Amino acid sequence: MSGYSTNMRVKLPLLCIILEAITILLFAVFVRYDTETDAHKWHQELHDHNKTNIDNDFYYRYPSFQDVHTMIFIGFGFLMTFLKCYGFSSVAFNFLIAAFGLQWSTLIQGFFHGFHDGKIHVGIESMINADFCTGAILISFGAILGKASPVQLLFMTLFEVTLFGINEYIILNIIGAKDAGGSMTIHTFGAYFGLMVSWVLYRPQLNKSRHKEGSVYHSDLFAMIGTIYLWMFWPSFNSAITAHGDDQHRTAMNTYYSLAACTLATFAMSALLSGEGKLDMVHIQNAALAGGVIVGTSAEMMLTPFGAMIAGFLAGVISTLGFKFLTPLLDSKLKIQDTCGVHNLHGMPGVMGAIIGAIVAALATADIYGYGMDDVFPLISDGSRTAQSQGVYQIIALFVALGFALVGGVLVGFILKIPVMGSPPDTQCFEDEIFWEVPEEDAGHGQMMAVNTEDNEKHAQA
Amino acid sequence: MSGYSTNMRVKLPLLCIILEAITILLFAVFVRYDTETDAHKWHQELHDHNKTNIDNDFYYRYPSFQDVHTMIFIGFGFLMTFLKCYGFSSVAFNFLIAAFGLQWSTLIQGFFHGFHDGKIHVGIESMINADFCTGAILISFGAILGKASPVQLLFMTLFEVTLFGINEYIILNIIGAKDAGGSMTIHTFGAYFGLMVSWVLYRPQLNKSRHKEGSVYHSDLFAMIGTIYLWMFWPSFNSAITAHGDDQHRTAMNTYYSLAACTLATFAMSALLSGEGKLDMVHIQNAALAGGVIVGTSAEMMLTPFGAMIAGFLAGVISTLGFKFLTPLLDSKLKIQDTCGVHNLHGMPGVMGAIIGAIVAALATADIYGYGMDDVFPLISDGSRTAQSQGVYQIIALFVALGFALVGGVLVGFILKIPVMGSPPDTQCFEDEIFWEVPEEDAGHGQMMAVNTEDNEKHAQA
Amino acid sequence: MSGYSTNMRVKLPLLCIILEAITILLFAVFVRYDTETDAHKWHQELHDHNKTNIDNDFYYRYPSFQDVHTMIFIGFGFLMTFLKCYGFSSVAFNFLIAAFGLQWSTLIQGFFHGFHDGKIHVGIESMINADFCTGAILISFGAILGKASPVQLLFMTLFEVTLFGINEYIILNIIGAKDAGGSMTIHTFGAYFGLMVSWVLYRPQLNKSRHKEGSVYHSDLFAMIGTIYLWMFWPSFNSAITAHGDDQHRTAMNTYYSLAACTLATFAMSALLSGEGKLDMVHIQNAALAGGVIVGTSAEMMLTPFGAMIAGFLAGVISTLGFKFLTPLLDSKLKIQDTCGVHNLHGMPGVMGAIIGAIVAALATADIYGYGMDDVFPLISDGSRTAQSQGVYQIIALFVALGFALVGGVLVGFILKIPVMGSPPDTQCFEDEIFWEVPEEDAGHGQMMAVNTEDNEKHAQA
Fold it and tell me: How far is C230 from chain B (nearest CA, A)?
């Protein structure tokens, strides 16, 4: 039975060391500094092209990168600390997954996008793209939060990053779709992938851990740190790899408007849907962010500020409705246990974002974009596509993302079922104690209460 | 009686949806991308003026914007979580107010500042200015924290943003005063507005909720997250919309020195004023920030580093004294219940900041500013004013800000008294339960203790 | 006995006011705006050299500065809140030390590095360097966390900043070593200085406070905020003052890879070293950061991405081993009580970072660096040194840093022993109550439990 144990003493170190060793080896063979990070090449470039050091792309991407980085490690990490007894795992497994994911995706994305002369060239753009990829993995993590061992999570990362890279390559490079903020490549893919994994890993006895699935007062406040950071920096996320100039500027602004409108919709719906006219933290923590997802494809385009606001408002409404009505249904009818409700925050808004992107693309005209068409829609600009056909390709890309997510999620889900990975039993989900040395005195508030109550019961009996 | 209820099921959704619908409609009619965010116009600009994409103002304002954004949503939001049972409301109502406020102020400020050819042009500067305006609203929120419903807060935002826009227009555009960091337009206006609202909404029975007005250990730590972010990013706040070059650079640096000196003054005064030689978290959380407020007008000017430090030190002393002696007096003598002590952090330091700004302006000489005079004091530079008269105009601006705040605050206070808005009763202030679904097991530490104590009492009786 | 009291009513205000007054006086005499922050000089520069405002270094250093600032105030501050009853002191004394330290180091570093025509010229670079210096002080603070009064901490800051400035001057300007991220000047110096102070201040009766030295569930989550911010922004730290262009870009990227690899090593070692195959939060909070320290010297160089990853992996392994085996030994055998384990996070990785820096420097060739040699190794570039001799000088610099730290730490430790400074007794270490007004209802979780347990015991007796 030891192979089936949740004891991580052997299997986790072994896996971490093997994965890191392989990664370092592949980096040694394939990864090189790009022109902007290599001392020799950059100074040659300065010499040859009359550039100055402040032309280095570091200055025009790195602030966005750090905002994205904050979303990945603080945003996702703390958003998931809402569970009363799973805070250590939420923030620290998020940390582990992302730290491995960004290395692995540098390789995978590098093979597909940045392979020149047999080498992968890395710099600020590869750093942003790697963080983006880990975002998709962390979305999937949200669906299975509390129900997987770190070994399972690392294996999921390994395979999902790989599939992400292939899917992204097909969508962006072969289909020629635009998806700067990843409505399709990140949100749709990450959400439906995670839902499929959760479906395969369905736990019929999960009700034995349900009492630990909720939040306590302070865990909800920790989660709000995650929410607010995601909300604030989403404009940087969507704009981080768009073209310089008006593109980045417009993308950030559209996202900002969408999120603001989404927030009002979320408060409205949360109060409306509750039986007692009270607000629900789950909605505020999650649905208010759907405004960033829903403009992930279109924020780069000439969406107009009020267009962004309509999209954002819609996202808030649909996402809140999803938390209220759809998540319970997914669980009871489809046997998909979606811990964080990623279907509501990333799944539906991602799909809608793809559709909105297709519509806005189909409406592109030379009059609206002027010389700027080349940055947003190069294939329309160079005459190889009409705006309408670009719209159609956008929709094809959505189906590709869904296909990769659904099939990939099922396959990886079955891999994660291998017993040796140390999945926690149904009775010990949503708790840190199975994987962590938890301080004795105060092992999560819920448990602390339990201890006190027990003590009191003893006294009562006495 | 249902119209007077604090049940938010109908009134909050209705208000959110109406406000958002009006906002979107006005955006559709009036708001357009500016040259830096519009694909067509920006690329035309590139073509016509031999510019490059990295000349886009996005790269020279957006990092400052994100720092300001963090202050508004994390800084203000978490600073107010110090209350033991009001953490959800503090951070989430802050979120709601700011999300609506930034949209509404884009319109109001746009009508006054950015109206060209019948359209409001938006880009990074309008985003920063909108966030600034919400800062004033959040200061007012601090005065009535724990005592207002979200409906009241949205109405306050609606009217206060409007008055803010008019006041700001008069001060900056008509009077020609300088106030980059908003000592007058943001801090003085926001604080006295809020104090007047609190005065009109005076609650004679508030002592029935006083036991909930304090903090608990962890809520004070959450509040410190807010404090530290405000403190760190205040240099970005004061410099976010100053002229490019030395102006932004100097403004940030002056603010940084002022805050550092203010922190030492705050620790000194806090230890001195306590009966037992112990430090008080309320002072550290708040008074240490007054150094940012007090140089809000003058940080842009040639204040000198040591001048900034003297100002900051003064701010720390006065603000701490205010928390110790003035806040209780305001309550008992003037019937102004100032939950967060905004008079000490924003009111007095704001007024003093305006005065310091006037003095430093009056001392401006061509020798000190050189060609840089045009950026800091264009009206002195072009000969239409002497430095002394600029100083006088600065003082006039202070009185305008005070006048708008006092009169506006009273008027809006009376509007907020309309019973249908769902103001909580005096017995239920400072608690989340009235507006939120609070997790059962651990409804704030104070309440948890209560539960335990009760249990224990039962056992004792048994 | 009053002179020996821990009552801060007189001594802390007096010290703060005297230090700030001296600082302001010295600023008034010596500190002036530099060319980039002075209105007159900058606009003259624009005029004379055909520059534009966006050439101001503010735009190319300030985002890095704010990341560093966040590490200093949020990162260090919250990392140390892991102690269950010492959260107020951790974050607020960190705040006090850093606020004074940055002012004092502006003067000290100014005298050594930036003294022109009898004046210290300040701008964004002096701001970053001042923050760097406070980083070293905060590392030392970590070694004596919970065991020193704020008066002791301010005195330590006063002297340690001064020694830091001299040490840094010798290493960078006289020896000509490179140390952009401060493996030697910040981490090695700060750690061994703090360990020596802790050694001199050895507390034989500290076991009387040991029950307060641990964490509780939520304090570990607060600490993770610090950890994650340090981890995310370490690339900005190491690159903040490197040369513009490829140097900053490469330094940030190398650090990012090193940290990612370090994180996997830390999880691996943490699971491996625990008896029960469970992860330990202390390791994740600390050892995962050693990857930033270990490339502090070499990240600027052509370390290669896989080289950075090997270094980072090594750092994670050694640091975790140190927490498990070395910290207890230091305490029991060498009488060094290292509260935060700074020897594992900063000491050993700092020394190793210096050695790696020396090796990579010795391997520098004209072929690898091209024209970029001048930015990374100016003394090799201008022919005054070979790469090998640069490597030797790097090692000499390490010994200088160690020497300053060991001797300086002992001397300052003895100064801090002066009884009047109000050091807490051995029985009252690691608790806020001695220096803070702590909210009554919930004075830290540990104490709260104590209260409950006591109550229960009474009932049991009844």
Answer: 15
Q: Which two tokens stand for residue B342?
A: 């905004």
- Kindly list the structural domains of chain B, giving each domain's residue range(s) and its CATH number in brackets, ordered by start: 10-454 (1.10.3430.10)
Q: Let me know: does A295 contact A312? Beta carbons within 8 Å.
A: yes
Q: Residue B40 and residue A372: Cβ atoms within 8 Å?
A: yes
Measured between CA atoms, how close is A448 to chain B, in angstroms? 10
**ipTM attached to this prediction:** 0.94
Note whether B40 and A369 are within 8 A (CB).
yes
CB distance A63–B58 less than 8 Å?
A: no
| Element of type H or E holding A119 | strand A119-122
Distance CA C190, CA C181 (A): 13
| Chain-chain contact of C437 with B259 (C-beta, under 8 angstroms) | no
Q: How far is A146 from chain B (nearest CA, A)?
A: 19
The answer to whether the CB atoms of B281 and C12 lie below 8 A apart is: no
The answer to whether residues A267 and A216 touch, using CB atoms and an 8 Å cutoff, is no
- Ramachandran class of A386: left when φ > 0, alpha when ψ lies in -120 to 50, beta otherwise: beta
Contacts of B250 in chain C (CB under 8 A): 33, 37-39
Chain B contact set for C91 (CB, 8 A): 221, 224, 228
Confidence class of residue A114 from pLDDT cuts 50, 70 and 90?
Answer: confident
pLDDT digits (tens, 9 = 90+) for C311-368: 999 999 999 999 999 999 999 999 999 999 999 999 999 999 999 999 999 999 999 9
Partners of C120 in the beta sheet?
A: C31, C115
User: H/E element holding C192?
Assistant: helix C189-200
Q: What is the identity of the amino acid at B347? A: G
- For A48-70, b where at least 16 C-beta lie within 10 A, e where not — what string? eeeeebbbbbbbbbbbbbbbbbb
Confidence at residue B75, expressed as pLDDT on a 0 to 100 scale: 98
The one-letter amino acid at B61: R
What residue type is C200 in one-letter code?
V
Q: Do A437 and C276 touch (CB under 8 A)?
A: yes
| Whether C150 contacts C435, CB under 8 Å | yes
Residues in A closer than 8 angstroms to B81, CB to CB, are: 221
Mode of pairing for the β-strands spanning B115-116 and B119-122: antiparallel
User: How far lies C359's CA from each of A147, B396, B405, C168, C301, in Å?
Assistant: 46, 65, 64, 21, 11
Structural contact between residues C83 and C213, judged by C-beta atoms closer than 8 angstroms: yes
Q: Which chains touch A (3 or more CB pairs under 8 A)?
A: B, C
- What lies within 8 Å, CB to CB, of A332 at 6+ separation is none
Q: How far is residue A146's CA from residue A144's CA, in Å, rounded to a whole number?
A: 6
Q: Show residues of chain B in contact with A248, CB under 8 Å.
A: 56, 58
Helical residues (DSSP H) of A169-286, grouped into ranges: 189-200, 217-239, 246-273, 281-286
Residues 6+ apart with CB under 8 A from B368: B302, C39, C40
Tens of pLDDT, residue by residue over A408-453, are 999 999 999 999 999 999 999 999 999 999 996 543 333 333 333 3
Cα distance from B169 to chain A (closest Cα, Å)?
Answer: 24
Chain B partners within 8 Å of C10 (Cβ): 272, 277
The span from the CA of B444 to the CA of A221, in Å, is 11
Predicted local distance difference test score (pLDDT) of residue B276: 87
Specify the pLDDT at position A462: 34
Q: Is C51 helix (H, G, I), strand (E, B) or coil?
A: coil
CA distances from A149 to A97, A163, A372, A429, C240 (A): 12, 21, 48, 10, 38
d(CA C383, CA C380): 5
Give pLDDT tens digits for C365-397: 999 999 999 999 999 999 999 999 999 999 999
Please give the residue of chain B at the shortest CA–CA distance from A370.
B40
Contact between B292 and B234 (Cβ < 8 Å):
yes
